[in-house]
Amino acid sequence: MFSGPRLMTFGDAVAEIARATGRDLRYVPLTPEAYADEQRAQGVPEEWVRLSVGLYESVRSGGLASLGDGVRRALGRAPRDFSEYADAAARQGVRNG
Fold first, then answer.
1. What is the Cα–Cα distance from 87 to 94, expressed in whole angstroms?
2. CA gyration radius, the chain
3. Using CA atoms, how far apart are residues 35 and 49, in angstroms rounded to an integer?
4. Which of 11, 43, 49, 81 is paired with 91 by a 20 to 30 Å CA distance?
């Protein structure tokens, strides 16, 4: 398992990106049904919609949340925090939209 040094929700990640970029960003959670509808509207095949909705529900509920030591084992160093990544990306001008 590869992870950073702390567990984060989608909302936490968006808040970190907003802070780093100085942009007014908010995470607006979708219901699983709305998420499925968005996928279908993009032409995603139904079997992939079902799979991605199941994964979305698991992530959203925290059911897959865990910390691991994969980064340390693979790279020989501690993982950096998402806020450090967001700051570095913002400094480099990395963004879409």
1. 10
2. 16
3. 9
4. 11
- Residue 19 has which token pair? 């802070």
Reported confidence tier of residue 97, pLDDT bands at 50, 70, 90: low
For 13-59, how does the pLDDT look when each residue is reduced to its tens digit (9 = 90+)? 999 999 999 999 999 999 999 999 999 999 999 999 999 999 999 98
List Cα–Cα distances, 87 to 27, 32, 55, 84, in angstroms. Answer: 18, 31, 28, 5
At residue 22, the 3 state secondary structure works out as: coil
Place of tokens 């698991």: 58
Alpha helices in the chain (DSSP H): 10-21, 32-41, 46-61, 70-75, 82-92
In residues, how long is the chain? 97
Distance CA 95, CA 12 (A): 18
Determine contact, residues 9/65, Cβ cutoff 8 Å. Answer: no
